[in-house]
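ARCHIVE CARD
SHELF: 3
SLOT: left
DATA:
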Amino acid sequence: KKDAENLLKQRIGEVAAGRRVGSEKATIEDLCNLVIADAEMRKLDDVQHVKWRYVAHIKPIFGSLLASRFGQAQIREYIKQRRAEDASNGTINRELAIVRRGFRLGAQEEPPFVLRQPAFPMLKENNVRQGFIERPQYETLLAELPENLRALFVCGYHVGARKNELRRIEWDQVDFEARVIRLTAGQTKAKVSRVLPIYGDVELWLRKQQETAPPRNRYVFHGARGCPVDNHLLGWGRSL
Protein backbone atom coordinates (compact mmCIF):
# COMPACT_ATOMS: atom_id res chain seq x y z
CA LYS A 1 0.00 0.00 0.00
CA LYS A 2 2.81 2.40 0.89
CA ASP A 3 4.54 1.77 -2.44
CA ALA A 4 1.28 2.39 -4.27
CA GLU A 5 0.73 5.65 -2.40
CA ASN A 6 4.24 6.82 -3.25
CA LEU A 7 3.74 5.91 -6.90
CA LEU A 8 0.45 7.80 -6.94
CA LYS A 9 2.13 10.91 -5.50
CA GLN A 10 4.82 10.62 -8.17
CA ARG A 11 2.21 10.40 -10.92
CA ILE A 12 0.29 13.38 -9.53
CA GLY A 13 3.52 15.40 -9.53
CA GLU A 14 4.25 14.42 -13.12
CA VAL A 15 0.76 15.36 -14.23
CA ALA A 16 1.00 18.69 -12.39
CA ALA A 17 4.25 19.37 -14.21
CA GLY A 18 2.51 18.59 -17.49
CA ARG A 19 4.76 15.67 -18.32
CA ARG A 20 5.13 12.00 -17.48
CA VAL A 21 8.26 10.08 -18.42
CA GLY A 22 7.51 6.64 -19.75
CA SER A 23 8.48 4.42 -22.64
CA GLU A 24 6.25 6.42 -24.97
CA LYS A 25 7.61 9.87 -24.01
CA ALA A 26 11.20 9.36 -22.81
CA THR A 27 13.83 11.23 -24.81
CA ILE A 28 17.56 10.74 -25.19
CA GLU A 29 17.93 13.74 -22.88
CA ASP A 30 15.98 11.87 -20.17
CA LEU A 31 18.27 8.85 -20.57
CA CYS A 32 21.46 10.90 -20.44
CA ASN A 33 20.19 12.71 -17.35
CA LEU A 34 19.90 9.29 -15.71
CA VAL A 35 23.57 8.66 -16.52
CA ILE A 36 24.62 12.00 -15.04
CA ALA A 37 22.49 11.49 -11.92
CA ASP A 38 23.94 7.99 -11.47
CA ALA A 39 27.50 9.29 -11.83
CA GLU A 40 26.83 12.03 -9.28
CA MET A 41 25.24 9.57 -6.85
CA ARG A 42 28.26 7.25 -7.09
CA LYS A 43 30.68 10.23 -6.98
CA LEU A 44 32.53 9.13 -10.09
CA ASP A 45 35.64 11.11 -11.00
CA ASP A 46 34.55 11.77 -14.57
CA VAL A 47 31.07 13.16 -13.86
CA GLN A 48 32.00 16.64 -15.09
CA HIS A 49 33.45 15.18 -18.25
CA VAL A 50 30.25 13.17 -18.85
CA LYS A 51 28.22 16.35 -18.47
CA TRP A 52 30.47 18.22 -20.87
CA ARG A 53 30.35 15.48 -23.52
CA TYR A 54 26.57 15.39 -23.31
CA VAL A 55 26.01 19.15 -23.49
CA ALA A 56 28.66 19.78 -26.15
CA HIS A 57 27.98 16.92 -28.55
CA ILE A 58 25.12 14.56 -27.71
CA LYS A 59 22.40 17.04 -26.77
CA PRO A 60 22.62 19.17 -29.96
CA ILE A 61 22.08 16.04 -32.09
CA PHE A 62 19.93 13.71 -30.00
CA GLY A 63 18.59 15.68 -27.03
CA SER A 64 14.89 15.96 -27.98
CA LEU A 65 14.73 12.69 -29.94
CA LEU A 66 12.32 10.11 -28.53
CA ALA A 67 14.19 7.08 -27.23
CA SER A 68 11.64 4.87 -28.98
CA ARG A 69 12.78 6.31 -32.34
CA PHE A 70 16.49 5.83 -31.69
CA GLY A 71 18.21 3.05 -33.61
CA GLN A 72 21.01 2.09 -35.97
CA ALA A 73 20.22 4.85 -38.47
CA GLN A 74 20.66 7.50 -35.77
CA ILE A 75 23.92 5.90 -34.58
CA ARG A 76 25.32 5.85 -38.12
CA GLU A 77 24.34 9.47 -38.66
CA TYR A 78 25.96 10.49 -35.35
CA ILE A 79 29.22 8.75 -36.29
CA LYS A 80 29.17 10.42 -39.71
CA GLN A 81 28.56 13.88 -38.25
CA ARG A 82 31.19 13.60 -35.51
CA ARG A 83 33.79 12.32 -37.97
CA ALA A 84 33.05 15.35 -40.14
CA GLU A 85 33.97 17.39 -37.05
CA ASP A 86 37.31 15.52 -36.82
CA ALA A 87 36.35 13.54 -33.73
CA SER A 88 38.42 10.37 -33.27
CA ASN A 89 36.89 6.90 -33.05
CA GLY A 90 37.80 6.80 -29.36
CA THR A 91 35.98 10.08 -28.70
CA ILE A 92 32.89 8.88 -30.57
CA ASN A 93 32.94 5.60 -28.62
CA ARG A 94 33.03 7.48 -25.30
CA GLU A 95 30.11 9.67 -26.35
CA LEU A 96 27.93 6.81 -27.58
CA ALA A 97 28.77 4.91 -24.39
CA ILE A 98 26.86 7.59 -22.47
CA VAL A 99 23.76 6.99 -24.59
CA ARG A 100 24.17 3.21 -24.28
CA ARG A 101 24.37 3.48 -20.49
CA GLY A 102 21.31 5.71 -20.57
CA PHE A 103 19.32 2.95 -22.27
CA ARG A 104 20.48 0.43 -19.67
CA LEU A 105 19.51 2.67 -16.76
CA GLY A 106 16.26 3.61 -18.48
CA ALA A 107 15.29 -0.05 -18.74
CA GLN A 108 15.78 -0.39 -14.96
CA GLU A 109 13.44 2.49 -14.08
CA GLU A 110 9.96 1.78 -12.66
CA PRO A 111 8.10 2.07 -14.95
CA PRO A 112 10.80 1.59 -17.59
CA PHE A 113 11.80 4.57 -19.73
CA VAL A 114 12.57 2.21 -22.62
CA LEU A 115 11.28 -1.18 -23.74
CA ARG A 116 14.30 -2.10 -25.87
CA GLN A 117 18.05 -1.46 -25.92
CA PRO A 118 19.65 -0.98 -29.35
CA ALA A 119 23.04 -2.46 -30.17
CA PHE A 120 25.91 0.03 -30.20
CA PRO A 121 28.85 -0.77 -32.50
CA MET A 122 32.33 -0.14 -31.14
CA LEU A 123 34.57 1.70 -33.57
CA LYS A 124 38.15 0.53 -33.91
CA GLU A 125 40.53 2.61 -31.84
CA ASN A 126 44.24 3.13 -32.25
CA ASN A 127 45.38 3.67 -28.67
CA VAL A 128 49.03 2.77 -29.18
CA ARG A 129 51.20 5.59 -27.89
CA GLN A 130 54.21 6.24 -30.04
CA GLY A 131 57.23 8.43 -29.51
CA PHE A 132 58.05 11.01 -26.87
CA ILE A 133 58.22 14.78 -26.83
CA GLU A 134 61.80 15.86 -27.35
CA ARG A 135 63.29 18.85 -25.53
CA PRO A 136 62.83 21.33 -28.44
CA GLN A 137 59.15 20.33 -28.77
CA TYR A 138 58.72 20.63 -25.02
CA GLU A 139 60.12 24.16 -25.01
CA THR A 140 57.99 25.19 -28.00
CA LEU A 141 54.79 23.88 -26.42
CA LEU A 142 55.63 25.46 -23.08
CA ALA A 143 56.00 28.87 -24.71
CA GLU A 144 52.65 28.54 -26.51
CA LEU A 145 50.56 27.38 -23.55
CA PRO A 146 48.49 29.80 -21.44
CA GLU A 147 50.28 30.89 -18.28
CA ASN A 148 47.92 28.98 -15.98
CA LEU A 149 48.67 25.64 -17.68
CA ARG A 150 52.46 25.83 -17.93
CA ALA A 151 53.32 24.44 -14.49
CA LEU A 152 50.96 21.51 -15.05
CA PHE A 153 52.54 20.82 -18.44
CA VAL A 154 56.07 20.94 -17.00
CA CYS A 155 55.17 18.54 -14.21
CA GLY A 156 53.41 16.17 -16.63
CA TYR A 157 56.37 16.18 -19.02
CA HIS A 158 58.82 15.26 -16.27
CA VAL A 159 56.87 12.68 -14.25
CA GLY A 160 54.57 11.19 -16.91
CA ALA A 161 51.53 11.06 -14.62
CA ARG A 162 47.96 11.29 -15.90
CA LYS A 163 46.50 14.79 -16.07
CA ASN A 164 43.60 13.82 -13.78
CA GLU A 165 46.14 12.67 -11.20
CA LEU A 166 48.11 15.89 -11.46
CA ARG A 167 45.25 18.39 -11.47
CA ARG A 168 43.98 17.21 -8.06
CA ILE A 169 47.31 17.42 -6.22
CA GLU A 170 47.10 19.53 -3.06
CA TRP A 171 49.93 21.49 -1.49
CA ASP A 172 50.18 19.22 1.56
CA GLN A 173 51.18 16.39 -0.81
CA VAL A 174 54.19 18.32 -2.10
CA ASP A 175 57.36 17.72 -0.08
CA PHE A 176 60.07 20.07 -1.32
CA GLU A 177 62.56 18.83 1.27
CA ALA A 178 62.22 15.18 0.19
CA ARG A 179 61.74 16.34 -3.42
CA VAL A 180 58.64 14.20 -3.98
CA ILE A 181 54.90 14.52 -4.57
CA ARG A 182 52.84 11.84 -2.84
CA LEU A 183 49.71 10.69 -4.65
CA THR A 184 47.03 8.97 -2.58
CA ALA A 185 45.31 5.76 -3.69
CA GLY A 186 42.13 7.73 -4.32
CA GLN A 187 43.89 9.93 -6.87
CA THR A 188 45.37 7.24 -9.10
CA LYS A 189 43.58 5.20 -11.75
CA ALA A 190 44.97 1.95 -10.31
CA LYS A 191 43.83 2.99 -6.79
CA VAL A 192 47.38 2.52 -5.51
CA SER A 193 49.35 5.30 -3.81
CA ARG A 194 52.40 6.51 -5.71
CA VAL A 195 55.34 8.91 -5.32
CA LEU A 196 56.36 11.33 -8.07
CA PRO A 197 59.89 12.79 -8.11
CA ILE A 198 60.54 16.54 -8.15
CA TYR A 199 63.46 17.16 -10.52
CA GLY A 200 64.48 19.22 -13.53
CA ASP A 201 62.23 22.25 -14.05
CA VAL A 202 59.49 20.92 -11.78
CA GLU A 203 60.52 22.66 -8.54
CA LEU A 204 60.94 26.03 -10.27
CA TRP A 205 57.40 25.89 -11.67
CA LEU A 206 55.90 24.55 -8.46
CA ARG A 207 57.44 27.50 -6.62
CA LYS A 208 55.88 29.85 -9.20
CA GLN A 209 52.50 28.22 -8.58
CA GLN A 210 52.99 28.72 -4.88
CA GLU A 211 53.78 32.42 -5.33
CA THR A 212 50.76 33.09 -7.55
CA ALA A 213 48.21 30.88 -5.78
CA PRO A 214 45.04 32.55 -4.41
CA PRO A 215 44.86 32.92 -0.60
CA ARG A 216 44.08 29.68 1.25
CA ASN A 217 44.26 27.74 -2.02
CA ARG A 218 44.50 23.94 -1.62
CA TYR A 219 45.28 22.88 -5.16
CA VAL A 220 48.69 23.12 -6.81
CA PHE A 221 47.29 23.43 -10.33
CA HIS A 222 44.31 25.65 -9.71
CA GLY A 223 41.73 27.12 -12.04
CA ALA A 224 39.02 29.67 -11.37
CA ARG A 225 38.31 30.45 -7.70
CA GLY A 226 41.09 28.12 -6.55
CA CYS A 227 39.43 24.92 -7.84
CA PRO A 228 41.43 22.32 -9.80
CA VAL A 229 41.97 23.40 -13.39
CA ASP A 230 39.02 22.23 -15.52
CA ASN A 231 39.73 18.87 -17.14
CA HIS A 232 37.94 19.58 -20.43
CA LEU A 233 39.94 22.79 -20.95
CA LEU A 234 43.25 20.95 -21.10
CA GLY A 235 42.82 19.04 -24.38
CA TRP A 236 46.36 17.69 -24.18
CA GLY A 237 45.63 14.79 -26.53
CA ARG A 238 44.72 17.11 -29.40
CA SER A 239 47.38 19.68 -28.55
CA LEU A 240 50.20 17.16 -28.70
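SLOT: right
DATA:
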Amino acid sequence: MYLKFICTIVIITFYVFFGVSSNSPFYKPKPYLKAIKSYDEKVKLHDGLIEVLSYNTWGLPIALDGHDQDRRFNVMGYELASINSEIIALQETFHSNLRQNILQTLGKTYYHCMDYSKNRNLLGLCHMDYLGGLMTFSKYPILEEKFYPFPDQPNSKIIELIGRKGFLISKIQFGDIECYIVNTHLYAGSSANDERHRKAQIEFLFRTLKELDIINERIILVGDFNIQHPCLQFSEVYQIITETHHFEDSKPIINENDFTYNCRTNAYVPNNENKSKLDYIFLSRRMQEEFTVRNQGIEMNSPAPCSDHYGWKATLKLNTRFRNSSPICVSQ
Protein backbone atom coordinates (compact mmCIF):
# COMPACT_ATOMS: atom_id res chain seq x y z
CA MET A 1 0.00 0.00 0.00
CA TYR A 2 2.81 2.39 0.91
CA LEU A 3 4.57 1.79 -2.41
CA LYS A 4 1.36 2.44 -4.36
CA PHE A 5 0.83 5.67 -2.42
CA ILE A 6 4.34 6.88 -3.19
CA CYS A 7 3.99 5.97 -6.88
CA THR A 8 0.67 7.83 -7.11
CA ILE A 9 2.20 10.95 -5.56
CA VAL A 10 5.15 10.70 -7.92
CA ILE A 11 2.89 10.52 -10.98
CA ILE A 12 0.79 13.48 -9.86
CA THR A 13 3.92 15.53 -9.20
CA PHE A 14 5.31 14.65 -12.61
CA TYR A 15 2.23 15.71 -14.54
CA VAL A 16 1.72 18.92 -12.56
CA PHE A 17 5.28 20.18 -12.64
CA PHE A 18 7.24 18.32 -15.30
CA GLY A 19 4.92 17.53 -18.21
CA VAL A 20 6.63 17.93 -21.57
CA SER A 21 4.74 19.78 -24.27
CA SER A 22 4.82 18.41 -27.80
CA ASN A 23 3.94 21.83 -29.22
CA SER A 24 7.34 23.43 -28.73
CA PRO A 25 9.59 24.01 -31.77
CA PHE A 26 12.60 21.91 -32.60
CA TYR A 27 15.46 22.51 -30.20
CA LYS A 28 18.46 24.13 -31.92
CA PRO A 29 21.93 23.21 -30.63
CA LYS A 30 24.14 25.88 -29.11
CA PRO A 31 27.01 27.07 -31.35
CA TYR A 32 29.72 25.85 -28.99
CA LEU A 33 28.54 22.23 -29.12
CA LYS A 34 31.12 20.96 -31.58
CA ALA A 35 32.60 17.47 -31.93
CA ILE A 36 36.33 16.88 -32.18
CA LYS A 37 36.71 15.07 -35.49
CA SER A 38 39.43 12.44 -35.65
CA TYR A 39 41.08 11.11 -38.76
CA ASP A 40 38.96 7.96 -38.41
CA GLU A 41 35.69 9.93 -38.56
CA LYS A 42 36.90 11.88 -41.62
CA VAL A 43 37.72 8.63 -43.41
CA LYS A 44 34.30 7.15 -42.60
CA LEU A 45 32.57 10.32 -43.77
CA HIS A 46 34.59 10.30 -46.98
CA ASP A 47 33.63 6.65 -47.54
CA GLY A 48 29.95 7.30 -46.82
CA LEU A 49 29.80 5.16 -43.67
CA ILE A 50 27.44 5.59 -40.72
CA GLU A 51 27.70 3.26 -37.73
CA VAL A 52 24.56 3.28 -35.57
CA LEU A 53 24.34 1.79 -32.08
CA SER A 54 21.10 1.33 -30.13
CA TYR A 55 21.47 0.47 -26.45
CA ASN A 56 19.08 0.14 -23.53
CA THR A 57 21.21 1.18 -20.54
CA TRP A 58 18.93 -0.20 -17.78
CA GLY A 59 19.41 3.07 -15.93
CA LEU A 60 16.43 2.88 -13.59
CA PRO A 61 15.98 5.94 -11.34
CA ILE A 62 16.25 3.98 -8.09
CA ALA A 63 18.85 1.51 -6.80
CA LEU A 64 17.69 -2.11 -6.47
CA ASP A 65 19.53 -5.15 -5.13
CA GLY A 66 21.52 -7.00 -7.75
CA HIS A 67 21.44 -4.21 -10.31
CA ASP A 68 25.07 -3.16 -9.62
CA GLN A 69 24.33 0.41 -10.63
CA ASP A 70 27.53 1.91 -9.21
CA ARG A 71 29.75 -0.41 -11.26
CA ARG A 72 27.67 -0.26 -14.42
CA PHE A 73 27.15 3.50 -14.40
CA ASN A 74 30.83 4.21 -13.77
CA VAL A 75 32.09 2.20 -16.75
CA MET A 76 29.24 2.50 -19.24
CA GLY A 77 30.37 5.77 -20.83
CA TYR A 78 33.85 4.39 -21.48
CA GLU A 79 32.43 1.15 -22.89
CA LEU A 80 30.19 3.10 -25.26
CA ALA A 81 33.03 5.38 -26.34
CA SER A 82 35.26 2.38 -27.10
CA ILE A 83 32.78 1.13 -29.72
CA ASN A 84 33.24 4.41 -31.60
CA SER A 85 29.91 4.44 -33.43
CA GLU A 86 29.05 7.66 -35.21
CA ILE A 87 25.48 7.54 -33.85
CA ILE A 88 24.67 6.32 -30.34
CA ALA A 89 20.98 6.08 -29.38
CA LEU A 90 20.38 5.26 -25.70
CA GLN A 91 17.26 4.28 -23.81
CA GLU A 92 16.40 4.06 -20.09
CA THR A 93 18.91 6.71 -19.02
CA PHE A 94 16.50 7.75 -16.28
CA HIS A 95 19.10 7.93 -13.49
CA SER A 96 20.87 11.28 -13.08
CA ASN A 97 24.21 9.66 -12.13
CA LEU A 98 24.21 7.58 -15.30
CA ARG A 99 23.50 10.57 -17.51
CA GLN A 100 26.19 12.59 -15.78
CA ASN A 101 28.79 9.85 -16.31
CA ILE A 102 27.80 9.40 -19.95
CA LEU A 103 28.00 13.15 -20.59
CA GLN A 104 31.48 13.30 -19.03
CA THR A 105 32.76 10.75 -21.54
CA LEU A 106 30.70 10.94 -24.74
CA GLY A 107 30.17 14.68 -24.36
CA LYS A 108 33.83 15.31 -25.14
CA THR A 109 33.78 13.91 -28.68
CA TYR A 110 30.10 13.71 -29.66
CA TYR A 111 27.54 16.32 -30.54
CA HIS A 112 24.53 16.33 -28.24
CA CYS A 113 21.66 18.76 -28.36
CA MET A 114 19.25 18.39 -25.43
CA ASP A 115 20.08 19.42 -21.87
CA TYR A 116 20.63 15.94 -20.47
CA SER A 117 21.76 17.33 -17.12
CA LYS A 118 18.23 18.52 -16.34
CA ASN A 119 16.34 16.45 -13.75
CA ARG A 120 12.89 15.98 -12.32
CA ASN A 121 13.01 15.83 -8.53
CA LEU A 122 10.42 13.24 -7.57
CA LEU A 123 9.55 14.35 -4.02
CA GLY A 124 13.15 13.92 -2.98
CA LEU A 125 12.98 10.18 -3.61
CA CYS A 126 15.11 10.27 -6.77
CA HIS A 127 16.17 12.45 -9.67
CA MET A 128 14.88 11.44 -13.06
CA ASP A 129 15.23 12.69 -16.61
CA TYR A 130 12.47 14.47 -18.53
CA LEU A 131 13.05 12.97 -22.00
CA GLY A 132 11.62 9.49 -21.56
CA GLY A 133 15.03 8.03 -20.76
CA LEU A 134 16.35 8.83 -24.26
CA MET A 135 19.75 10.26 -25.23
CA THR A 136 21.18 10.61 -28.75
CA PHE A 137 24.83 11.36 -29.55
CA SER A 138 26.40 11.93 -32.96
CA LYS A 139 29.90 12.38 -34.36
CA TYR A 140 28.20 14.39 -37.12
CA PRO A 141 26.50 17.72 -36.36
CA ILE A 142 22.97 17.65 -34.93
CA LEU A 143 21.10 20.43 -36.73
CA GLU A 144 17.92 20.30 -34.67
CA GLU A 145 16.19 18.00 -32.25
CA LYS A 146 12.88 17.51 -30.46
CA PHE A 147 11.31 15.09 -27.99
CA TYR A 148 7.71 13.91 -28.42
CA PRO A 149 6.08 12.17 -25.42
CA PHE A 150 3.59 9.45 -26.23
CA PRO A 151 -0.03 10.38 -25.42
CA ASP A 152 -1.43 8.94 -22.21
CA GLN A 153 -3.43 5.74 -22.57
CA PRO A 154 -6.08 4.24 -20.26
CA ASN A 155 -5.02 1.35 -18.02
CA SER A 156 -1.31 2.07 -18.35
CA LYS A 157 1.11 0.57 -15.84
CA ILE A 158 2.30 2.96 -13.15
CA ILE A 159 5.94 2.40 -14.09
CA GLU A 160 5.18 3.34 -17.71
CA LEU A 161 3.42 6.53 -16.61
CA ILE A 162 6.39 7.51 -14.47
CA GLY A 163 8.84 6.79 -17.30
CA ARG A 164 6.92 9.09 -19.66
CA LYS A 165 8.28 7.43 -22.79
CA GLY A 166 8.28 8.92 -26.25
CA PHE A 167 10.64 9.43 -29.18
CA LEU A 168 13.50 11.82 -29.87
CA ILE A 169 13.96 13.09 -33.45
CA SER A 170 17.47 14.32 -34.32
CA LYS A 171 18.32 15.87 -37.68
CA ILE A 172 21.91 14.93 -38.57
CA GLN A 173 24.25 16.59 -41.08
CA PHE A 174 26.11 13.74 -42.78
CA GLY A 175 28.52 15.43 -45.12
CA ASP A 176 26.45 16.92 -47.95
CA ILE A 177 23.20 15.20 -46.96
CA GLU A 178 20.82 15.21 -44.01
CA CYS A 179 19.11 12.34 -42.26
CA TYR A 180 16.88 11.84 -39.24
CA ILE A 181 17.59 9.61 -36.25
CA VAL A 182 14.37 8.64 -34.47
CA ASN A 183 15.24 7.13 -31.07
CA THR A 184 12.39 5.50 -29.14
CA HIS A 185 11.43 3.12 -26.34
CA LEU A 186 8.02 1.47 -26.52
CA TYR A 187 5.72 0.13 -23.80
CA ALA A 188 7.09 -2.95 -22.00
CA GLY A 189 5.38 -6.29 -21.43
CA SER A 190 4.40 -9.46 -23.25
CA SER A 191 0.60 -9.45 -22.88
CA ALA A 192 -1.91 -8.64 -25.60
CA ASN A 193 -2.81 -5.44 -23.76
CA ASP A 194 0.88 -4.40 -23.73
CA GLU A 195 1.01 -4.92 -27.49
CA ARG A 196 -2.07 -2.72 -27.89
CA HIS A 197 -0.26 0.04 -26.01
CA ARG A 198 2.76 -0.34 -28.26
CA LYS A 199 0.55 -0.28 -31.34
CA ALA A 200 -0.98 3.04 -30.28
CA GLN A 201 2.50 4.45 -29.62
CA ILE A 202 3.99 3.43 -32.96
CA GLU A 203 0.94 4.74 -34.81
CA PHE A 204 1.37 8.09 -33.03
CA LEU A 205 5.06 8.10 -33.99
CA PHE A 206 4.30 7.62 -37.68
CA ARG A 207 1.48 10.18 -37.61
CA THR A 208 3.96 12.66 -36.21
CA LEU A 209 6.50 11.90 -38.96
CA LYS A 210 3.77 12.53 -41.54
CA GLU A 211 2.65 15.77 -39.88
CA LEU A 212 6.27 16.97 -39.87
CA ASP A 213 6.43 16.05 -43.58
CA ILE A 214 9.58 13.99 -43.13
CA ILE A 215 8.11 10.49 -43.59
CA ASN A 216 9.71 10.24 -47.06
CA GLU A 217 13.12 11.50 -45.92
CA ARG A 218 16.18 9.52 -44.83
CA ILE A 219 15.09 8.11 -41.46
CA ILE A 220 16.86 5.65 -39.19
CA LEU A 221 14.36 4.39 -36.61
CA VAL A 222 16.17 2.85 -33.63
CA GLY A 223 15.52 1.79 -30.07
CA ASP A 224 14.02 -0.74 -27.71
CA PHE A 225 10.68 -1.70 -29.27
CA ASN A 226 9.88 -4.40 -26.68
CA ILE A 227 8.64 -6.71 -29.44
CA GLN A 228 9.70 -10.21 -30.34
CA HIS A 229 11.28 -10.69 -33.72
CA PRO A 230 8.88 -12.31 -36.24
CA CYS A 231 11.31 -15.22 -36.55
CA LEU A 232 10.12 -16.09 -33.04
CA GLN A 233 6.64 -14.63 -32.67
CA PHE A 234 4.17 -12.50 -34.62
CA SER A 235 4.03 -8.81 -33.66
CA GLU A 236 1.47 -6.40 -35.05
CA VAL A 237 3.79 -3.52 -34.19
CA TYR A 238 6.57 -5.04 -36.28
CA GLN A 239 4.08 -5.52 -39.11
CA ILE A 240 2.99 -1.86 -38.94
CA ILE A 241 6.60 -0.71 -39.16
CA THR A 242 7.68 -2.98 -42.00
CA GLU A 243 4.53 -3.59 -44.05
CA THR A 244 2.30 -0.57 -43.46
CA HIS A 245 5.08 2.04 -43.50
CA HIS A 246 7.69 0.08 -45.48
CA PHE A 247 10.56 0.53 -43.03
CA GLU A 248 13.02 -2.33 -43.36
CA ASP A 249 14.54 -4.19 -40.44
CA SER A 250 18.33 -4.02 -40.76
CA LYS A 251 18.31 -7.78 -40.16
CA PRO A 252 14.98 -9.41 -41.09
CA ILE A 253 16.32 -12.93 -40.45
CA ILE A 254 18.08 -13.52 -37.12
CA ASN A 255 20.10 -16.35 -35.60
CA GLU A 256 21.28 -17.43 -32.15
CA ASN A 257 23.91 -14.68 -32.07
CA ASP A 258 21.40 -11.85 -32.46
CA PHE A 259 19.47 -11.89 -29.17
CA THR A 260 19.85 -8.60 -27.30
CA TYR A 261 18.02 -9.92 -24.21
CA ASN A 262 19.31 -13.38 -23.32
CA CYS A 263 19.18 -15.12 -19.94
CA ARG A 264 21.66 -17.75 -21.14
CA THR A 265 24.48 -15.26 -21.62
CA ASN A 266 23.52 -12.23 -19.48
CA ALA A 267 23.30 -12.78 -15.72
CA TYR A 268 21.10 -9.68 -15.30
CA VAL A 269 18.26 -11.27 -17.29
CA PRO A 270 15.89 -13.38 -15.13
CA ASN A 271 16.04 -17.10 -15.90
CA ASN A 272 12.31 -17.25 -16.57
CA GLU A 273 12.53 -14.67 -19.39
CA ASN A 274 12.57 -15.89 -22.97
CA LYS A 275 15.54 -14.86 -25.06
CA SER A 276 14.52 -12.03 -27.30
CA LYS A 277 15.65 -9.45 -29.82
CA LEU A 278 14.01 -6.34 -28.41
CA ASP A 279 16.37 -3.76 -29.94
CA TYR A 280 16.17 -2.80 -33.62
CA ILE A 281 17.39 -0.52 -36.36
CA PHE A 282 14.82 0.16 -39.12
CA LEU A 283 15.48 2.07 -42.34
CA SER A 284 12.96 4.20 -44.22
CA ARG A 285 12.35 3.52 -47.89
CA ARG A 286 14.67 6.34 -48.93
CA MET A 287 17.40 5.02 -46.64
CA GLN A 288 16.97 1.60 -48.22
CA GLU A 289 17.37 3.12 -51.68
CA GLU A 290 20.47 5.15 -50.86
CA PHE A 291 22.25 3.04 -48.24
CA THR A 292 23.32 -0.58 -47.88
CA VAL A 293 23.63 -2.43 -44.56
CA ARG A 294 27.26 -3.45 -44.60
CA ASN A 295 27.38 -5.42 -41.34
CA GLN A 296 25.66 -5.60 -37.96
CA GLY A 297 25.43 -7.48 -34.68
CA ILE A 298 25.28 -7.23 -30.90
CA GLU A 299 27.62 -4.99 -28.90
CA MET A 300 28.21 -4.26 -25.21
CA ASN A 301 28.13 -8.02 -24.60
CA SER A 302 31.20 -8.48 -22.42
CA PRO A 303 31.21 -11.12 -19.62
CA ALA A 304 30.53 -8.24 -17.21
CA PRO A 305 27.74 -6.44 -19.09
CA CYS A 306 26.64 -2.88 -18.37
CA SER A 307 22.93 -3.64 -18.77
CA ASP A 308 20.36 -6.42 -18.95
CA HIS A 309 20.29 -5.65 -22.70
CA TYR A 310 23.05 -5.94 -25.25
CA GLY A 311 23.43 -3.21 -27.83
CA TRP A 312 22.55 -3.58 -31.51
CA LYS A 313 24.87 -1.96 -34.03
CA ALA A 314 24.64 -1.61 -37.81
CA THR A 315 27.07 -0.12 -40.31
CA LEU A 316 25.41 1.66 -43.24
CA LYS A 317 27.19 2.64 -46.45
CA LEU A 318 25.99 5.28 -48.89
CA ASN A 319 25.60 3.73 -52.32
CA THR A 320 27.91 5.07 -55.03
CA ARG A 321 25.13 6.19 -57.36
CA PHE A 322 23.78 8.58 -54.71
CA ARG A 323 27.10 10.27 -54.10
CA ASN A 324 28.53 13.33 -55.79
CA SER A 325 31.39 12.90 -58.20
CA SER A 326 33.59 14.55 -55.58
CA PRO A 327 34.03 13.09 -52.07
CA ILE A 328 31.51 14.04 -49.38
CA CYS A 329 32.74 17.26 -47.85
CA VAL A 330 34.02 17.09 -44.30
CA SER A 331 32.44 19.69 -42.01
CA GLN A 332 35.05 21.89 -40.35
